[in-house]
């Protein structure tokens, strides 16, 4: 019997902040030991000293269903790494994002080690900073041939896609000069501000009611060292989320046209696009509805991004779901432990239906 709550609490206490390679490696070893004791096949890979675990019910890199969850978390005050229960609500860093999901997958792997089909899971360790460990595993041939389920969302929202991401840096430079004579010098800050303003005016922005459009926002602005000097260099970072595979080059061209600066791509991730009418999506949706009959379950596409973007090349339907929780990355992050068993039962029903075909 797998004690999911104990596993979650143990992982929270390990302080698996993404940048702490020793901590995430310790957590990987911890999960590895649990799975091996229950007869689950395990393969450890390593990238830049960072361990990555692939666990499966059958030997081999290719499994019928591929799962994914991440065990790294964002930084937090020390008090958030001591789990705290209030009734069925578990508070602590990673309780929602994404350690409770990892615990559910540990249980599913252990319960299905003799299921006759094949299930695999990548327990990735740097999702919070781009998920290159998941990409590394996919590139090494770890695959799902019928379905991929990424547990990094919310139970009540069955996501069949999410936006791609572009992180762009624009840099403007000049000779600089004294701030008392701005007419004599080009100010790179003005160039960036004017360019970003022009870009925003040309952008068809999404709204809360109509969010499935490319979004644009500035996230970092760097310039200047003294209050009486026009700087020689200024840079702005733009975070763009886009919805279609063919939009990336068009967006890059628009940014350069409106700002007059060629953008540098600092990070890029593809959108995830699955047919919402696919049998697998309907099966998962119906299973969640069955085990959460009092909740309003809905199909959705996410504005954020998960490690699903690294799996698009597999050519299989992808579903993003997760535990019931909230305030991830915040000071009051929580998950509802009473909803973990129903989620496991729902996913088990999906597994049984997929594997019997």
Can you describe this structure?
It is a single chain. By secondary structure, this protein is an alpha+beta fold. It folds into two domains: 244 residues, Aminopeptidase; 106 residues, Alpha-Beta Plaits (2-Layer Sandwich). Helices cover 31% and strands 29% of the residues. It contains eight helices and 19 strands. The strands form five sheets. Strands 1-2-6-3-7-17 form a six-stranded mixed sheet, sandwiched between helices. A four-stranded antiparallel sheet has the order 4-5-19-18, with helices on one face. Strands 11-13-9-14 form a four-stranded antiparallel sheet, covered by helices on one side. Helix 1 crosses helix 3, helix 3 packs across helix 8 and helix 5 crosses helix 6. The longest helix is centred in the N-terminal third of the chain and has 17 residues. The radius of gyration is 23 Å and the shape is globular.
Layout of secondary structure:
Elements: H1 4-13, H2 21-37, E1 41-47, E2 50-56, E3 62-70, E4 84-86, E5 89-91, H3 95-111, E6 119-124, H4 132-139, E7 143-151, E8 157-162, E9 164-173, E10 177-178, H5 188-202, E11 215-223, E12 229-230, E13 233-242, H6 247-259, E14 264-269, E15 272-273, H7 279-291, E16 298-302, E17 318-321, E18 325-326, E19 334-336, H8 340-355
Parallel strand pairs: 3-6, 3-7, 7-17, 8-16
Antiparallel strand pairs: 1-2, 2-6, 4-5, 5-19, 8-15, 9-13, 9-14, 10-12, 11-13, 18-19
Helix pairs in contact: 1-3, 3-8, 5-6, 7-8
């Amino acid at each position: 019997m797998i004690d999911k709550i104990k596993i979650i609490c143990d992982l929270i206490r390990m302080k698996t902040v993404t940048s702490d390679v020793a901590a995430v490696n310790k957590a990987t070893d911890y999960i590895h030991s649990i799975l091996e004791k229950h007869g689950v096949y395990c393969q450890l890979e390593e990238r830049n000293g960072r361990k990555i675990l692939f666990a499966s019910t059958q030997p081999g890199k290719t499994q019928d269903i591929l799962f994914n969850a991440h065990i790294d978390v964002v930084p937090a005050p020390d008090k958030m790494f001591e789990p705290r229960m209030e009734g069925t609500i578990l508070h602590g860093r990673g309780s929602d994002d994404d350690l409770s999901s990892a615990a559910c997958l540990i249980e599913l792997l252990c319960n299905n080690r003799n299921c006759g089909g094949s299930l695999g899971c990548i327990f990735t360790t740097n999702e919070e900073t781009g998920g290159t460990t998941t990409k590394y595993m996919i590139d090494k041939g770890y695959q799902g041939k019928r379905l991929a389920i990424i547990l990094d969302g919310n139970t009540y929202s069955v996501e069949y896609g999410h936006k791609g991401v572009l992180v762009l840096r624009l840099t403007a430079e000049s000779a600089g000069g004294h701030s008392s004579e701005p007419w004599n010098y080009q100010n790179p800050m003005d160039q960036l501000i004017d360019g970003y303003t022009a870009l925003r005016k040309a952008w068809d922005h999404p709204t809360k009611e109509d969010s499935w459009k490319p979004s644009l926002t500035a996230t970092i602005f760097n310039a200047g060292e003294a209050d009486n000097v026009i700087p020689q260099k200024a840079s702005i970072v733009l975070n763009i989320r886009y919805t279609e595979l063919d939009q990336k080059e068009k967006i890059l061209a628009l940014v350069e046209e409106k700002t007059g600066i060629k953008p540098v791509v600092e990070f890029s991730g593809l959108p995830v696009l699955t047919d919402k009418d696919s049998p697998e999506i309907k099966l998962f949706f119906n299973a969640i509805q069955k085990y959460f009959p009092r909740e309003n379950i809905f199909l959705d596409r996410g504005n954020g991004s998960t490690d699903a973007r690294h799996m698009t090349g597999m050519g299989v339907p992808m579903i993003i779901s997760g535990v019931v929780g909230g305030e991830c990355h915040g000071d009051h992050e929580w998950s509802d432990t009473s909803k973990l068993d129903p989620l496991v039962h729902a996913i088990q029903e999906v597994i049984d239906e997929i594997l019997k075909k």
